[in-house]
Amino acid sequence: MTDEIIDLFSDTATQPTRAMREAMLAAPLGDEQRRSDPTVQRLEERIAALLGKERAVLVPSATMANQIAIALHCSPGDEVLCHRSAHVLNAEGGGLAANAGVQVLPLAGERGIFDGDTVRAALRIDDPHQPISRAVVVENTSNGGGGSVWPDAAFQSVVAVCRERGLILHIDGARLFNAAVARGVSPAHWAQHGQSVQVCFSKGLGCAFGAVLALDAELEPRARRIKQRLGGALRQAGIVAAGMLYALDHHVQRLAEDHQRAARLAAALAELPGLEVSPSDTNIVFLRYLRGTAAELAQRLRERGVLVSQGGGRLRACTHLGITDQGLERAIQVFAQVLCGESAL
Predict the structure, then answer these.
(1) To the nearest 10°, the Cα dihedral for 266, 272, 276, 278?
(2) Beta partners for 204?
(3) How confident is the model over 162-194, as pLDDT tens digits?
(4) What is the DSSP letter of 344?
(5) What 3-state class would DSSP assign to 296?
């Protein structure tokens, strides 16, 4: 393997910048569990306002935020509706069953997106033999959908059905800032319509870890109790919250650069033989290798210093804070070398 690594495996590969680390070093600290950390409180207040909610709760990860939300809204035996590619269904270790005792009904839809008619058709009738349809999870952007941003028509139709049928709407906004930047709107454009919404900072925003769950004030006490139960209480968490505050000030609008690089990557790879490239709305590019397995191509790229993830027969490349224009062009060259031979360089 070459010494030069271009890490497109995930946008979780981002590293805190020097300026972010300096902000973390200077942060006033307290005890988060006792609600006495001033930096955490400042972060929670800011996120609540940004998302159009009354309260917000800092947690270690987006997964924990999703788990808290579903346990907060549902009772054991209830059913949660989400897309069949959703993170809550496929990448949280069966947590919805283990932590909330709920079952999941996966929905179909192109690029991780469904509509209100799909939700309505999937709802259970009032019958003791069947679970109660309790909540809907919308993931925006949709990771499994290739970083797709929810169109207003589809999203608002889901909101309308939730209101009509008394369903809870939780928004998994792990990459909600990507969606907002791509559309040129505030994250509240979507977040204001959900009973809860989480945003993650350890992806394109460049923080080491951390997420925030925003919700109505009446739900906050129970959310904090569930957080405690799951082991999410922290101590001097202001050192993390300071990095997250820095990211809000300095790393949100620059997500547009990641989107531009992803578009460049998708366009370049679409010109190479043996690849089927999916559309890219934001910072994620999905590929299918038509001349072998995804694992084989991922290994060949890895041997030449380009890391991508693979699963379900597809490869995924993510642009992020750690990918420069030069690194991206090098990755494109490596793809060409692998697919077309040494002469491509």
Answers:
(1) 10
(2) none
(3) 999 999 999 999 999 999 999 999 999 999 999
(4) G
(5) helix
- Cα Rg of the chain, angstroms: 21
CB 213 within 8 A of CB 167: no
Say if CB 204 and CB 50 are below 8 A apart. no
In the chain the beta strands, taken as DSSP E runs, fall at: 6-7, 55-59, 79-83, 103-107, 133-139, 168-173, 196-200, 211-215, 275-277, 284-289, 306-307, 309-311, 314-318
Is the entire prediction scored with pTM above 0.90?
yes
Which residue shows structure tokens 């060409």? 336
User: Which residues are CB-neighbours of 107 under 8 A, at least 6 positions away?
Assistant: 81, 82, 83, 84, 114, 118, 119, 122
What does the angle CA 209 – CA 220 – CA 211 come to, to the nearest 5 degrees? 10
Domains of the chain: 6-13+254-344 (3.90.1150.10), 18-250 (3.40.640.10)
* Residue-wise DSSP of 200-252: ESSSTT--SS-EEEEE-GGGHHHHHHHHHHTT---SSTHHHHHHHHHHHHHTS
Three-state DSSP state, 291: coil
Per-residue pLDDT at 341 = 81
Which residue reads 């290994």 in tokens?
299
pLDDT tens per residue, range 70-88: 999 999 999 999 999 999 9
Using 70 as the pLDDT threshold, list the residues of the chain that sit under it: 1-3, 342-345
